[in-house]
Amino acid sequence: MALHTSALVLFSGGQDSTTCLALALSKYERVETIAFDYRQRHSVELEARLRVLEQIKLQFPQWTHKLGDDHLLDLAVLGQVSETSLTRDVAFKMESSGLPNTFVPGRNLLFLTLAAALAYRRDLQVMVTGVCETDFSGYPDCRDDTMKAMQLALSLGMDKRFLIETPLMWIDKAETWELAQAIGGEKLVELIIEHTHTCYKGDRTHRHAWGYGCGECPACDLRAKGFARWRSFAKV
Q1: What is the distance between the alpha carbons of residues 50 and 127, in angstroms, rounded to a whole number?
Q2: Burial class (CB in 10 A: 0-12, 13-18, 19+), 96
Q3: Entry pTM
Q4: Pairing mode, if any, of strands 126-128 and 207-208?
Q5: Under a CB-based contact definition with an 8 Å cutoff, are residues 92 and 101 in contact?
Q6: In contact, 218 and 168? CB cutoff 8 Å
Q7: Rounded Cα–Cα distance for residues 45 and 35 (Å)
Q8: Is 156 exposed, middle or buried (0-12, 13-18, 19+ CB in 10 A)?
Q9: What is the pLDDT of residue 103?
Q10: What is the mean pLDDT of each run of 10 residues along the chain (236 residues)?
Q11: What DSSP state is assigned to residue 136?
């Protein structure tokens, strides 16, 4: 019998979390999803994620019976204490700290703490998150050491052995596209292109080969470059 059979996916509706959700559905018997409304500037992602869930059920019927409840938590307090370009209408820039002003301090720490509280109540064993430190913006709460520390703290603090799974930790965006294709073929790739949302500006008016977005913000830049690299070596 498998050691872990259930998972809670931190699911924003973006490329990374959708790939993680597909991977979880391919591995676990019961999968639930959780998202957070922290008054993010790109709140359109909260609408996109519902379309992604709907499309997964429609296009991958073999996963439908595994996909359980979806949870949306109100985290307005995070927006209140954050002065960042993701929670305020300000230009994207690098700060004197060396971090981009898209960094929301404590965001992933709070997300994981609340996800663990929900997982505890729902008897879910694994928390899956799309953080990585290979092809990212330098956020300290996306690092492997942070995830390991959170896993230990949450397991000790709740007296329950949690596993925090980070499938994308050591791969870049090109490899994330490749992983999606390996899990669900071109059908999953097209679903990600058409229905997921990653753009920090919340732009759903401009359609690119890699999906919708402004094409200029850091999130769009990473996604576009990764898609181009993946397509180039996929054709070799």
Answers
A1: 20
A2: exposed
A3: 0.89
A4: unpaired
A5: yes
A6: no
A7: 10
A8: exposed
A9: 55
A10: 87 96 98 90 82 97 97 83 48 47 72 96 97 76 92 97 96 96 98 94 93 92 95 74
A11: S
Phi-psi sector, 13: left (phi>0), alpha (psi -120 to 50), beta: left
Read off the tokens for 203: 């732009």
Residue 140 and residue 88 in contact, taking contact as beta carbons nearer than 8 Å: no
Burial label, 145 (beta-carbon count in 10 A; 0-12, 13-18, 19+): exposed
Q: For residues 21 and 108, give the distance between their C-alpha atoms in angstroms, rounded to a whole number.
A: 17
Of the candidates 40, 186, 149, the residue with the CA atom closest to the CA atom of residue 194:
186
Q: How far apart are CA 86 and CA 200, in angstroms?
A: 7
CA–CA separation, 210 vs 15, rounded Å? 10
- What is the Cα–Cα distance from 109 to 142, expressed in whole angstroms? 9
